[in-house]
Amino acid sequence: MRRIDRIVILTGAGISAESGLGTFRDEGGLWAQHRIEDVATPEAFVRNPDLVHRFYNARRVQAAEAQPNPAHHALARLQADFPGDVLLVTQNVDGLHEKAGVRAIHMHGELSRALCAACEHRWDAPPEMSVGEPCPACDKPTARPDIVWFGEIPYHMEEIIEALQTCDLFAAIGTSGQVYPAAGFVEEARMSGAATVEMNLRDSDMSYAFEEHIVGPASKTVPAWVDRLLA
Ligand code: APR
Question: What residues does ligand 1 touch, defined as CB less than 6 Å away?
Fold first, then answer.
């Protein structure tokens, strides 16, 4: 068996489901309640910034109140105790990995941050953002949530692709495999010869690409998987 020195982990909304945060595409998920084109595109923000702010304000409050679950804590244990590299890439914007003590790359941004649409300055978002808020750097009224919307390019792609090309093990946890580029990470890792494992409640759109499947709630499967890696 290949020796494992470098691990890349991709997490999605499913890892935070047991912390009480709804996913996007499960039954009754966020995208069943809101239209993506109304709240999660740059065009939506131009058309109705108030609606977009209200959507993210509500999510910011929920995320601030949520607590990490055993899956987040297990990944913190892995990052602290694994003798090799553990890079955690998350599509989540909720901040629960950080609350558990994990260093994560936020490829889709963070609810806790604000971004100036004019000068790209970033700062800590207030609990409630509102239309016309000035940027602390350039003073233009162009503050927006620091969230990567549909049609925008995810953050840190160069670093992520490089890590995928050199990892020995790639794991995807609680993600439906419907949104690129994250959905393609498994194939990138496989091309570099990495072992691949998917942890999900059910099959995802990308399940066929993974060698190993661990089915069940992340709060149970992730701690058991981490125990196995650290044994
Ligand atoms: N344990 C493990 N997996 C779970 C759990 C759980 N307790 N609950 C749900 N899941 C799985 C679902 O089966 C599903 O495959 O989590 C996945 C959630 O999928 P999505 O709602 O599509 O979330 P995600 O994959 O993170 O979405 C990707 O889409 O809209 C965008 O930007 C948003 O980052 C997000 C991206």
Answer: 12-14, 17-18, 23-26, 29, 91, 108, 174-176, 178-179, 200-202, 204, 217-218
Which residue, by CA, sits nearest to atom 25 of ligand 1?
A: 175
Cβ count within 10 A of residue 151: 10
pTM of the model: 0.97
Look up 108 and say whether it is catalytic: yes
Alpha helices, H only, 40-182: 42-47, 49-65, 70-81, 96-99, 157-166
**In the chain, what is the straight-line distance between the N-terminal and C-terminal CA atoms, in Å?**
15
For Cα atoms 72, 75, 77, give the angle at the middle one, nearest 5 degrees.
115
- Rounded Cα–Cα distance for residues 213 and 173 (Å): 10
What letters, b where the CB count within 10 A reaches 16 and e where it falls short, cover 125-140? Answer: beeebeeebebeeeee
Convert the pLDDT of each residue in 17-59 to its tens digit. 999 999 999 888 999 899 999 999 999 999 999 999 999 999 9
Half-sphere exposure of residue 28: CA atoms within 13 angstroms, side-chain side: 3
Domains of the chain plus CATH, in order, are: 1-21+68-108+154-231 (3.40.50.1220), 26-65+110-147 (3.30.1600.10)
Q: At what angle do helices 218-230 and 70-81 cross, to 10 degrees?
A: 20
